[in-house]
Amino acid sequence: MSQRTPLYDNHVAAGGRMVDFAGWEMPVQYTGILDEHRSVREGCGVFDISHMGEFMVAGPGAAAWLEGLLTNRVARLSVGEAQYTLMVNERGGVIDDLIVYRIQDEGFLLIVNAAKIDEDAAWLQGRPADGVRFDNLSDQYAALAVQGPDAPAVFERLFRQPLPAERNRVIELPGADGASLPAYAVTTGYTGETGFELVIPAAYAAATWESLLAAGVKPCGLGARDTLRLEMCYPLNGSDLSPEHSPLEAGLGFFVDLEKGDFVGRDALVQQKASGLTRRLVAIQVEEKSPPIRPHYGVVAGGEVVAETSSGALSPSLGCGIALAYLPFALAKIGQPLEIEVRGRRYRATVVKKPFYQKKS
Fold first, then answer.
1. Which residue among 23, 157, 207, 349 is the one 20 to 30 A from 49 at the CA level?
2. How far is CA 94 from CA 67, 97, 235, 250, in A?
3. Which residues of 39-60 are buried (b: 16+ CB within 10 A; e: fewer)?
4. Nearest CA among 245, 238, 318 for reference residue 285
5. What is the set of domains in the chain, with CATH numbers?
6. Residue 196: which of 139, 142, 137, 150 has the closest Cα?
7. CA 324, CA 31: separation in Å to the nearest integer?
């Protein structure tokens, strides 16, 4: 049976169409994907992301412990800063991509993907170290993502303080009466727009959601979240990221610090970089009118199927089909002509520069 976030009843009341996603009943849309997508690009929308996991790591050995388990350089974070990073296996394949927030000098908040909560917790707890305390608080927290150009004004109206202007920041919010856990506002969005996420005790999720809707923020579902992130070429774990692909192949080398010292998977990634990549995750844009592109559609070059799409959609901003796919390295160059096979018909496409969507200045 699918799990439900603390906002399930609120979604139903707002007209959300509920579907199973990573073992959770989540809204795929309310008024329609195109409408919700446009609201985030032009105004402000809110997504329930309470299905994602929240881990706390604390203690004098916390930074060093995370350094040895994640690809990015955690030690460079100052209190109040965050970074995108990855957890990889000994072969260099992606277990999960996540965000690390330094909330105290010796305290870190980790936000992990919903489908990976149990696996990530077991993987981390299976590598204990002195001076480190690990707590899985996923059942105690809820989270909301507020995205769009109007988000700073919404934040200031609700919290009587300006939203941090910089990306990848975290601040602790004034505690609610009786709350046993701290609440945080972070600026690490998934849509390419200005925005913030609220990580709050689960008991306060419904009231916070309703206050956002009362402020004119539009409720948005998984459908718009997927088209927004795909236009930005942000990879989705389980589709674009998996244990069979490394961060280097996924184009995420910027978040892999091979010079920081040893971490799980480093040797495999060093060897892969030295040997040269054999495949790479690329952005593909369809050049003619087509049905929406979905995952697992064939990618054709020279009349032969050479790969399959890992993600795909109809881009509301561009008005055409877009996709991500791992192509053989020789074909993974901008301008490479391709075809996408949809229901037995092939549509002309091209490898293009990431991202598909450029934010308006």
1. 157
2. 16, 7, 12, 10
3. bbbebbbbbbbbbbbbbbbbbe
4. 318
5. 3-52+139-231 (3.30.1360.120), 54-136 (3.30.70.1400)
6. 150
7. 27
Q: Is the N-terminal amide bond of 247 cis, ω within 30° of 0?
A: no
Asked whether the beta carbons of 49 and 145 are under 8 A apart, the reply is yes
Reported as a single tens digit per residue, the pLDDT across 50-88 is: 999 999 999 999 999 999 999 999 999 999 999 999 999
Cβ pair 36, 220 in contact under 8 A: yes
The pLDDT tens digits for 118-159 are 999 999 999 999 999 999 999 999 999 999 999 999 999 999
Copy the structure tokens of residue 160: 């009587």
**How many CA atoms, within 13 angstroms, populate the side-chain half-sphere of residue 290?**
27
Amino acid at 9: D
Determine the Cα–Cα distance for residues 115 and 239; give it in Å rounded to an integer: 12
CA dist 51 and 47 (Å) reads 11
